[in-house]
Structure prediction request, 373 residues.
Amino acid sequence: MTTTSPIITVKNLNSHYGERQILKNVNFCVQQGEIRVIMGGSGSGKSTLLNHLLALLVPTSGSINIDDVDVVNADAKTLSNLRQKMGVAFQGGALFSSMTVGENIKLPLKHHTQLDENTIDIMARLKLELMNLAGFEDLMPAELSGGMLKRAGLARAVIMDPKLLFFDEPSAGLDPVTSVELDELILKLRDAMNMTIVVVTHELESAFKIADKITVLFDGEIALTGTVDEIKNSDDIRIQNLINRRSRNEKINAEQYIKRLTTGQG
Amino acid sequence: MIYQQTTYLHYQCLQLNGEVDLHNSPQVRKQLLAILKKGDSVLVDFSTLSYIDSSGIATLVEAFNIAKNKQLTLTIVAASGGPLQVLELTNLDKVFPMVANLTDVKE
Prediction:
Protein backbone atom coordinates (compact mmCIF):
# COMPACT_ATOMS: atom_id res chain seq x y z
CA MET A 1 0.00 0.00 0.00
CA THR A 2 1.32 3.44 -0.93
CA THR A 3 1.20 5.91 1.92
CA THR A 4 1.85 9.42 0.69
CA SER A 5 -0.48 12.34 1.30
CA PRO A 6 -4.12 11.49 2.05
CA ILE A 7 -6.45 11.34 -0.95
CA ILE A 8 -9.41 12.19 1.30
CA THR A 9 -9.28 14.61 4.21
CA VAL A 10 -12.42 15.47 6.15
CA LYS A 11 -12.13 18.17 8.82
CA ASN A 12 -14.67 19.23 11.44
CA LEU A 13 -17.62 18.18 9.26
CA ASN A 14 -21.04 19.09 10.61
CA SER A 15 -24.24 18.35 8.75
CA HIS A 16 -27.92 18.89 9.41
CA TYR A 17 -31.20 17.77 7.88
CA GLY A 18 -33.34 20.75 8.92
CA GLU A 19 -32.90 21.18 12.64
CA ARG A 20 -31.58 17.69 13.18
CA GLN A 21 -27.82 17.35 13.32
CA ILE A 22 -26.68 14.22 11.49
CA LEU A 23 -22.88 14.47 11.48
CA LYS A 24 -21.05 15.95 14.45
CA ASN A 25 -17.51 17.20 14.04
CA VAL A 26 -16.35 14.34 11.83
CA ASN A 27 -12.60 14.16 11.12
CA PHE A 28 -10.73 11.51 9.14
CA CYS A 29 -8.17 10.90 6.38
CA VAL A 30 -7.92 8.13 3.82
CA GLN A 31 -4.56 7.33 2.23
CA GLN A 32 -4.12 6.51 -1.45
CA GLY A 33 -4.49 2.79 -2.11
CA GLU A 34 -6.27 2.24 1.19
CA ILE A 35 -9.50 0.31 1.67
CA ARG A 36 -11.47 2.22 4.29
CA VAL A 37 -14.66 0.78 5.66
CA ILE A 38 -17.19 3.13 7.21
CA MET A 39 -19.26 1.14 9.64
CA GLY A 40 -22.13 1.87 11.94
CA GLY A 41 -25.70 0.93 12.66
CA SER A 42 -28.73 2.21 10.78
CA GLY A 43 -29.15 5.95 11.24
CA SER A 44 -25.55 6.45 12.37
CA GLY A 45 -24.83 8.86 9.50
CA LYS A 46 -22.92 6.51 7.16
CA SER A 47 -24.91 7.32 4.05
CA THR A 48 -24.97 11.04 4.85
CA LEU A 49 -21.19 10.98 5.14
CA LEU A 50 -20.95 9.15 1.81
CA ASN A 51 -23.20 11.74 0.17
CA HIS A 52 -20.95 14.50 1.48
CA LEU A 53 -17.86 12.75 0.08
CA LEU A 54 -19.64 12.63 -3.29
CA ALA A 55 -20.46 16.34 -3.00
CA LEU A 56 -24.16 15.57 -3.20
CA LEU A 57 -24.85 17.40 0.06
CA VAL A 58 -23.54 20.72 1.35
CA PRO A 59 -22.31 20.58 4.96
CA THR A 60 -23.30 23.11 7.61
CA SER A 61 -19.60 23.58 8.35
CA GLY A 62 -16.27 21.89 7.87
CA SER A 63 -14.14 20.93 4.90
CA ILE A 64 -13.73 17.96 2.58
CA ASN A 65 -10.66 17.65 0.40
CA ILE A 66 -10.49 14.90 -2.21
CA ASP A 67 -7.48 14.50 -4.51
CA ASP A 68 -6.49 18.13 -3.80
CA VAL A 69 -9.97 19.49 -4.56
CA ASP A 70 -11.86 21.50 -1.95
CA VAL A 71 -15.14 19.68 -2.53
CA VAL A 72 -17.33 22.06 -0.51
CA ASN A 73 -16.30 25.17 -2.44
CA ALA A 74 -15.39 23.74 -5.85
CA ASP A 75 -17.14 25.02 -8.98
CA ALA A 76 -19.20 22.69 -11.18
CA LYS A 77 -16.40 22.11 -13.72
CA THR A 78 -13.85 21.17 -11.06
CA LEU A 79 -16.37 18.81 -9.45
CA SER A 80 -17.15 17.26 -12.83
CA ASN A 81 -13.42 16.63 -13.45
CA LEU A 82 -13.07 15.14 -9.97
CA ARG A 83 -16.08 12.88 -10.48
CA GLN A 84 -14.46 11.40 -13.58
CA LYS A 85 -11.80 10.01 -11.27
CA MET A 86 -14.40 8.64 -8.88
CA GLY A 87 -16.62 5.61 -9.27
CA VAL A 88 -19.72 5.04 -7.20
CA ALA A 89 -21.55 1.76 -6.77
CA PHE A 90 -24.91 2.39 -5.19
CA GLN A 91 -26.79 -0.18 -3.13
CA GLY A 92 -29.37 -1.15 -5.74
CA GLY A 93 -27.10 -0.68 -8.74
CA ALA A 94 -28.86 2.54 -9.84
CA LEU A 95 -28.87 1.50 -13.50
CA PHE A 96 -31.03 3.25 -16.08
CA SER A 97 -34.02 0.97 -16.56
CA SER A 98 -34.53 1.96 -20.20
CA MET A 99 -31.03 0.88 -21.28
CA THR A 100 -29.48 -2.57 -21.53
CA VAL A 101 -26.85 -3.60 -19.00
CA GLY A 102 -24.14 -3.08 -21.62
CA GLU A 103 -25.40 0.41 -22.54
CA ASN A 104 -25.49 1.34 -18.85
CA ILE A 105 -21.91 0.22 -18.32
CA LYS A 106 -20.61 1.97 -21.43
CA LEU A 107 -22.37 5.24 -20.65
CA PRO A 108 -19.50 6.95 -18.74
CA LEU A 109 -17.03 6.07 -21.51
CA LYS A 110 -19.30 7.36 -24.26
CA HIS A 111 -19.94 10.52 -22.29
CA HIS A 112 -16.41 11.32 -21.17
CA THR A 113 -13.97 9.79 -23.68
CA GLN A 114 -13.17 9.72 -27.37
CA LEU A 115 -12.29 6.02 -27.37
CA ASP A 116 -13.03 3.85 -30.37
CA GLU A 117 -16.28 1.88 -30.26
CA ASN A 118 -14.35 -1.45 -30.36
CA THR A 119 -12.25 -0.42 -27.35
CA ILE A 120 -15.37 0.63 -25.44
CA ASP A 121 -17.14 -2.65 -26.23
CA ILE A 122 -14.17 -4.74 -25.07
CA MET A 123 -13.72 -2.62 -21.92
CA ALA A 124 -17.37 -3.18 -21.00
CA ARG A 125 -17.07 -6.93 -21.60
CA LEU A 126 -13.87 -7.10 -19.53
CA LYS A 127 -15.73 -5.55 -16.59
CA LEU A 128 -18.72 -7.83 -17.08
CA GLU A 129 -16.36 -10.85 -17.05
CA LEU A 130 -14.79 -9.51 -13.87
CA MET A 131 -18.22 -9.32 -12.25
CA ASN A 132 -19.26 -12.79 -13.47
CA LEU A 133 -21.83 -11.19 -15.75
CA ALA A 134 -20.45 -12.34 -19.09
CA GLY A 135 -23.23 -12.68 -21.64
CA PHE A 136 -25.65 -10.40 -19.80
CA GLU A 137 -24.87 -7.21 -21.70
CA ASP A 138 -28.01 -7.26 -23.83
CA LEU A 139 -30.42 -7.83 -20.94
CA MET A 140 -32.45 -5.05 -19.36
CA PRO A 141 -31.84 -4.25 -15.66
CA ALA A 142 -35.36 -5.50 -14.84
CA GLU A 143 -34.27 -8.95 -16.03
CA LEU A 144 -31.44 -9.18 -13.46
CA SER A 145 -31.52 -10.40 -9.85
CA GLY A 146 -30.62 -8.07 -6.96
CA GLY A 147 -27.10 -9.46 -6.73
CA MET A 148 -26.58 -9.14 -10.48
CA LEU A 149 -27.80 -5.54 -10.40
CA LYS A 150 -25.30 -4.77 -7.68
CA ARG A 151 -22.48 -6.32 -9.71
CA ALA A 152 -23.61 -4.50 -12.86
CA GLY A 153 -23.59 -1.26 -10.85
CA LEU A 154 -20.05 -2.05 -9.73
CA ALA A 155 -19.03 -2.78 -13.34
CA ARG A 156 -20.27 0.68 -14.32
CA ALA A 157 -18.57 2.26 -11.30
CA VAL A 158 -15.15 0.89 -12.34
CA ILE A 159 -15.49 1.21 -16.12
CA MET A 160 -13.28 4.35 -16.16
CA ASP A 161 -10.72 2.70 -13.80
CA PRO A 162 -11.38 5.32 -11.15
CA LYS A 163 -8.70 6.42 -8.75
CA LEU A 164 -11.29 6.37 -6.00
CA LEU A 165 -14.20 3.95 -5.65
CA PHE A 166 -17.12 4.43 -3.28
CA PHE A 167 -19.20 1.38 -2.59
CA ASP A 168 -22.43 1.53 -0.62
CA GLU A 169 -23.34 -1.73 1.12
CA PRO A 170 -21.61 -4.21 -1.22
CA SER A 171 -22.79 -7.31 0.63
CA ALA A 172 -26.37 -6.37 1.46
CA GLY A 173 -28.82 -8.74 -0.17
CA LEU A 174 -26.19 -11.07 -1.61
CA ASP A 175 -25.81 -14.78 -0.95
CA PRO A 176 -22.70 -15.65 1.11
CA VAL A 177 -20.68 -16.99 -1.83
CA THR A 178 -21.32 -13.95 -4.05
CA SER A 179 -20.60 -11.74 -1.07
CA VAL A 180 -17.18 -13.36 -0.49
CA GLU A 181 -16.41 -13.13 -4.22
CA LEU A 182 -17.23 -9.45 -4.18
CA ASP A 183 -14.92 -8.90 -1.19
CA GLU A 184 -12.12 -10.66 -3.05
CA LEU A 185 -12.80 -8.54 -6.11
CA ILE A 186 -12.52 -5.36 -4.03
CA LEU A 187 -9.10 -6.51 -2.78
CA LYS A 188 -7.96 -7.38 -6.31
CA LEU A 189 -9.11 -4.02 -7.70
CA ARG A 190 -7.06 -2.24 -5.07
CA ASP A 191 -3.97 -4.37 -5.66
CA ALA A 192 -4.04 -4.35 -9.47
CA MET A 193 -5.27 -0.79 -10.06
CA ASN A 194 -4.02 0.85 -6.84
CA MET A 195 -7.57 2.10 -6.32
CA THR A 196 -8.54 3.80 -3.09
CA ILE A 197 -11.81 2.24 -1.98
CA VAL A 198 -14.30 3.56 0.55
CA VAL A 199 -16.90 0.98 1.51
CA VAL A 200 -19.94 1.78 3.59
CA THR A 201 -21.29 -1.33 5.25
CA HIS A 202 -22.69 -2.84 8.37
CA GLU A 203 -21.57 -6.35 7.40
CA LEU A 204 -18.88 -7.14 9.96
CA GLU A 205 -17.42 -10.18 8.26
CA SER A 206 -16.94 -8.29 5.01
CA ALA A 207 -15.52 -5.23 6.83
CA PHE A 208 -12.98 -7.31 8.72
CA LYS A 209 -11.89 -9.10 5.57
CA ILE A 210 -11.28 -6.11 3.31
CA ALA A 211 -10.52 -3.10 5.52
CA ASP A 212 -7.13 -1.57 6.05
CA LYS A 213 -8.86 0.74 8.52
CA ILE A 214 -12.39 1.00 9.80
CA THR A 215 -14.16 4.18 10.84
CA VAL A 216 -17.03 3.47 13.21
CA LEU A 217 -19.84 6.00 13.37
CA PHE A 218 -22.37 6.31 16.17
CA ASP A 219 -25.11 8.90 16.16
CA GLY A 220 -23.17 11.00 13.65
CA GLU A 221 -19.92 10.96 15.60
CA ILE A 222 -16.78 8.96 14.95
CA ALA A 223 -16.42 6.49 17.80
CA LEU A 224 -13.09 5.16 16.53
CA THR A 225 -10.94 4.89 13.44
CA GLY A 226 -8.56 1.98 13.59
CA THR A 227 -7.25 -1.24 12.13
CA VAL A 228 -9.37 -4.39 12.27
CA ASP A 229 -7.52 -5.50 15.43
CA GLU A 230 -7.93 -2.10 17.07
CA ILE A 231 -11.67 -2.22 16.40
CA LYS A 232 -11.97 -5.80 17.66
CA ASN A 233 -10.03 -4.96 20.82
CA SER A 234 -11.74 -1.63 21.48
CA ASP A 235 -13.18 -1.27 24.96
CA ASP A 236 -15.88 1.10 23.69
CA ILE A 237 -19.10 -0.65 24.70
CA ARG A 238 -20.95 0.65 21.60
CA ILE A 239 -18.34 -0.92 19.32
CA GLN A 240 -18.46 -4.17 21.25
CA ASN A 241 -22.26 -4.14 20.97
CA LEU A 242 -21.95 -3.68 17.20
CA ILE A 243 -19.35 -6.45 16.87
CA ASN A 244 -21.22 -8.85 19.10
CA ARG A 245 -24.62 -7.94 17.67
CA ARG A 246 -26.03 -6.90 21.02
CA SER A 247 -28.97 -4.56 21.18
CA ARG A 248 -28.22 -1.09 22.39
CA ASN A 249 -30.50 -1.15 25.46
CA GLU A 250 -29.97 2.56 25.85
CA LYS A 251 -31.07 4.17 29.06
CA ILE A 252 -34.17 6.28 28.61
CA ASN A 253 -34.05 9.91 29.53
CA ALA A 254 -37.62 10.21 30.78
CA GLU A 255 -37.83 13.96 30.41
CA GLN A 256 -36.56 13.99 26.80
CA TYR A 257 -38.74 11.00 25.95
CA ILE A 258 -41.94 12.71 27.14
CA LYS A 259 -40.89 15.91 25.35
CA ARG A 260 -40.40 13.99 22.10
CA LEU A 261 -43.79 12.30 22.46
CA THR A 262 -45.69 15.45 23.31
CA THR A 263 -43.98 18.11 21.21
CA GLY A 264 -42.09 16.14 18.55
CA GLN A 265 -38.87 17.89 19.62
CA GLY A 266 -35.89 17.04 21.76
CA MET B 1 6.35 9.31 -26.25
CA ILE B 2 4.09 6.57 -25.00
CA TYR B 3 5.88 3.97 -27.14
CA GLN B 4 9.09 3.29 -29.04
CA GLN B 5 9.10 0.97 -31.99
CA THR B 6 12.07 -1.20 -32.94
CA THR B 7 12.64 -4.33 -34.98
CA TYR B 8 13.64 -7.51 -33.18
CA LEU B 9 14.22 -10.66 -35.23
CA HIS B 10 11.21 -10.74 -37.57
CA TYR B 11 8.97 -8.94 -35.07
CA GLN B 12 7.99 -5.33 -34.63
CA CYS B 13 8.60 -4.50 -30.98
CA LEU B 14 6.45 -1.83 -29.36
CA GLN B 15 7.92 -0.78 -26.04
CA LEU B 16 5.30 0.96 -23.88
CA ASN B 17 6.58 3.70 -21.58
CA GLY B 18 5.13 5.03 -18.32
CA GLU B 19 1.35 4.99 -18.07
CA VAL B 20 -1.09 3.83 -20.72
CA ASP B 21 -4.50 5.30 -19.98
CA LEU B 22 -7.69 6.68 -21.54
CA HIS B 23 -5.78 9.60 -23.03
CA ASN B 24 -2.99 7.81 -24.85
CA SER B 25 -4.29 4.28 -25.47
CA PRO B 26 -5.80 5.40 -28.84
CA GLN B 27 -2.21 6.18 -30.00
CA VAL B 28 -1.07 2.70 -28.98
CA ARG B 29 -4.11 1.18 -30.73
CA LYS B 30 -3.43 3.06 -33.94
CA GLN B 31 0.19 1.89 -34.03
CA LEU B 32 -0.59 -1.73 -33.11
CA LEU B 33 -3.26 -1.97 -35.80
CA ALA B 34 -0.90 -0.40 -38.35
CA ILE B 35 1.82 -2.97 -37.57
CA LEU B 36 -0.65 -5.85 -37.93
CA LYS B 37 -2.07 -4.38 -41.12
CA LYS B 38 1.42 -4.57 -42.64
CA GLY B 39 1.46 -8.27 -41.76
CA ASP B 40 4.05 -8.16 -38.98
CA SER B 41 3.90 -10.07 -35.72
CA VAL B 42 4.30 -7.90 -32.68
CA LEU B 43 6.07 -7.90 -29.33
CA VAL B 44 4.56 -5.57 -26.75
CA ASP B 45 7.34 -4.80 -24.31
CA PHE B 46 6.11 -3.95 -20.79
CA SER B 47 9.59 -3.50 -19.26
CA THR B 48 9.21 0.29 -18.91
CA LEU B 49 5.44 0.29 -18.38
CA SER B 50 4.33 1.35 -14.90
CA TYR B 51 0.53 1.38 -15.37
CA ILE B 52 -2.00 0.20 -17.91
CA ASP B 53 -5.72 0.86 -17.61
CA SER B 54 -8.65 -1.04 -19.10
CA SER B 55 -8.57 0.93 -22.34
CA GLY B 56 -4.96 -0.21 -22.82
CA ILE B 57 -5.90 -3.79 -22.01
CA ALA B 58 -8.90 -3.62 -24.37
CA THR B 59 -6.54 -2.36 -27.09
CA LEU B 60 -4.29 -5.38 -26.57
CA VAL B 61 -7.30 -7.72 -26.71
CA GLU B 62 -8.46 -6.22 -29.99
CA ALA B 63 -4.96 -6.36 -31.47
CA PHE B 64 -4.43 -9.93 -30.25
CA ASN B 65 -7.65 -11.00 -31.95
CA ILE B 66 -6.69 -9.33 -35.23
CA ALA B 67 -3.24 -10.95 -35.06
CA LYS B 68 -4.82 -14.35 -34.49
CA ASN B 69 -7.18 -13.96 -37.44
CA LYS B 70 -4.23 -13.04 -39.67
CA GLN B 71 -2.14 -15.91 -38.31
CA LEU B 72 0.29 -13.44 -36.80
CA THR B 73 1.34 -13.32 -33.13
CA LEU B 74 1.14 -10.75 -30.36
CA THR B 75 3.41 -11.53 -27.42
CA ILE B 76 3.74 -9.65 -24.15
CA VAL B 77 7.31 -9.19 -22.97
CA ALA B 78 8.51 -8.53 -19.40
CA ALA B 79 5.19 -7.88 -17.67
CA SER B 80 5.61 -7.26 -13.95
CA GLY B 81 4.11 -5.32 -11.03
CA GLY B 82 0.80 -3.50 -11.55
CA PRO B 83 0.50 -4.21 -15.31
CA LEU B 84 1.00 -7.95 -14.66
CA GLN B 85 -1.62 -7.83 -11.91
CA VAL B 86 -4.08 -6.21 -14.31
CA LEU B 87 -3.46 -9.04 -16.81
CA GLU B 88 -4.01 -11.56 -14.01
CA LEU B 89 -7.14 -9.78 -12.78
CA THR B 90 -8.66 -10.09 -16.24
CA ASN B 91 -7.29 -13.64 -16.75
CA LEU B 92 -5.50 -12.46 -19.88
CA ASP B 93 -2.20 -13.80 -18.56
CA LYS B 94 -3.67 -17.18 -19.55
CA VAL B 95 -4.56 -15.94 -23.04
CA PHE B 96 -1.69 -13.78 -24.29
CA PRO B 97 1.64 -15.47 -25.00
CA MET B 98 4.02 -13.98 -22.44
CA VAL B 99 7.79 -14.10 -22.10
CA ALA B 100 9.96 -12.76 -19.30
CA ASN B 101 12.66 -11.22 -21.51
CA LEU B 102 13.18 -10.18 -25.09
CA THR B 103 15.94 -12.81 -25.29
CA ASP B 104 13.32 -15.51 -24.60
CA VAL B 105 11.51 -14.67 -27.84
CA LYS B 106 11.96 -17.40 -30.43
CA GLU B 107 12.82 -16.77 -34.06
Q: What stands out?
A: Chain B has one domain: 3-104.
